[in-house]
Amino acid sequence: MEARILNQSEEHLWAAFVEKHPQGNIHQTPEWGHFRGHVPGNDKHWIIVLEEKAAGQTQIIAGTLLIRQSLPRGYSWLYAPRGPLLNYEDFGSTQMQMSILMDTIKELARKEKAIFFRVDPLIQVESQSPISFPHFRQNIHGSQPDHTLLLDLTPSEDDILKQMKPKGRYNIKLAEKKGVTIRKSTDVADFYKILSETTSRDGFHGHNQKFYQNMLDSLGKNASLYLAEFEGQVIAGCLNTFYKNTATYYYGASSNEHRNVMAPYLLHWHAIVEAKAKGYNFYDFFGIAPENAVNHAWAGVTEFKKKFGGIEVSYQKPQEFIFKKALYYLYRTYKKVR
Questions:
Q1: Model confidence over 219-271: pLDDT tens digits?
Q2: Mean pLDDT across the chain, nearest whole number?
Q3: What's the pTM?
Q4: In terms of residue numbers, what domain contains 137?
Q5: What residues are paired with 60 via a beta bridge?
Q6: Where are the alpha helices (DSSP H) in 88-235?
Q7: For the chain, what is the domain count?
């Protein structure tokens, strides 16, 4: 068993492996790597695989998409988004595969002046014993939400509505009655306009317009932009991803105008119905605050998301391998006070 870095012409091999892996997810796809490659500061990515021969055939048995995150003065940190994809069913295999991957990752870290390496595999706390990698430290603050809301799409539409909070059902019907309409778009200009209103109103930072357009374009069939209109004006939108059995609400925005027509509720109901019709089993609201976490980063949107019902799911905390200890703790201090 050995590790190697795939070239671009071999990315389809990794794509097929991600599709079949139990923890395979959109953040580990080649398309995600190309999308992030358009983001300032994410100028490089690699796909590192472990291969073995069986019956005369060489096959991928583990690996990860690895993204370089730039830091000042030529430094960086490395990230395996929702990875690596290993054999998590056998503890011995998990540790052995990670050890072999780390040999190649350490080589890249030296070349890229990386101060640490972060992993956050898609492993639910409720379904599996915690995975702890040797010489990694846990970090409570990561790049992905560690608590989210999953809506089961396998029941009938009527049953999905019944399990919602009464106010959620009411607001969907209200938006329909008021004449809100939903359409898809491949141009993020209208979405970005109302997103700017949202970030200003709710006090958080978004990305530039090119970021969202690149996401939509790079992910292709795995992403859709939904827009809600009222009286000819776009007043809400959401950018969703689609992969394997899950549709995910990734980014959302709503205008300061016409908030009384409850457009976001119909917007998501439309996305939910469409995802169900296409055969997806879950609608992931991509981050809510845990119970009683008042000052949590997701606290402001949690009440809205919970009106759609669903079940709460938690994922393991991210883990980090430190290459340059002094710079690492300087970076952590900066992120804490920022």
A1: 999 999 999 999 999 999 999 999 999 999 999 999 999 999 999 999 999 99
A2: 94
A3: 0.94
A4: 2-142+317-337
A5: 51
A6: 91-112, 157-162, 166-178, 189-202, 209-219
A7: 2
